[in-house]
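Query form — protein FHA domain-containing protein

QUESTION: What is the three-dimensional structure of this chain?
INPUT:
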Amino acid sequence: MGVLKRFEQRLEGLVNGTFAKVFKSEVQPVEIAGALQRECDNNATIWNRDRTVVPNDFIVELSTPDYERLSPYSGQLGDELASMVRDYAKQQRYTFMGAIKVHLQKADDLDTGLYRVRSRTLASSESQDPQQAAGGPGAGAPQQRPGGYGYPAQPAGAPPMPSTPPGARPAPRTSGAGAGAGAQQQGQTRRWIEINGSRHQISRPTLVLGRSTDADVRIDDPGVSRRHCEIRVGTPPTVQDLGSTNGIVVDGQHTTRATLRDGSRIVVGSTTIVYRQAEG
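ANSWER: The structure tokens for FHA domain-containing protein are given below.
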């Protein structure tokens, strides 16, 4: 059984009384869990052939409405998410430098249904085995200084990391079901997709949709391939089939590639995706 499926089953066991309100949020806990898995994969650092270190301190930024719905349960939900990260790390043979923590935080620049995950590697201040229930030896591990959120931690002896990198600092990854979405500058075209009532903002040149946790937007539909299709931001924006089993239908036409306009409807499996764009 997969890690995400076990996570969902644990949450189902907790759904009673007021805790059930968690699932009325636009952002679903399983979407955050998938984003945390990707955060580990994207920030894994190989120390040696037996040890790959991943972040252990995570901040999940939420829109004001989503944060207000989820924050009363942040302790319990954070513990479950941390447990999921630990299970995933054990499966992937990742290790940690300290205890796993998942925090919820409000972000005023996010719309309902969008979230942003930031992470860093923090060495434990306690005299304990730095390995936290994940594969690989814990003894003799290199010591690290804490890295800032969005930056990897550095080995001892490395030049100090600037608090503000030269030039513009890249925007942290923002997700709707794990999709990147940063704040849009005023005057730019805003682009997003709508799936089953949830909005997923587009701020990357490409956005991969599929059933895999590696997809930018994960679609839980048995008729959807792991990497089903890709939206490409350009002039004009397009959608491209990625060799999926069942193909794509755009505005009623079976196709492998199509131009998108505001309101275009993309059907993958039994799921309809509406593409939206607006000046703003």
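ADDITIONAL NOTE: The CA atoms of residues 129 and 138 lie 6 Å apart.
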